[in-house]
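INFO batch 0412 | record 1 of 1 | parsing
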Amino acid sequence: MKASAFDKKFDAGEDITNMLDLSRARRPGLEAKRVNVDFPAWMVQSLDREARKLGVTRQSLIKMWLADKLVHQSPP
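INFO prediction complete | emitting tokens
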């Protein structure tokens, strides 16, 4: 299929997902990068307590809190 035909189908609102190779799809800027951070034991215990209250994992809680802080930070 030519790109122009594909574009027409997309622009017409047709479902084109079966024409895509999603196995190679990427989300630029959202790729995971592993980072190791050491916390004191009291902090891990507090994180675990908060995570249990919210029903999420420790990792999810840390990511939520960091994302919130970074989104709401003051410009430099």
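INFO post-check: Residues 3-71 form one domain.
INFO record closed
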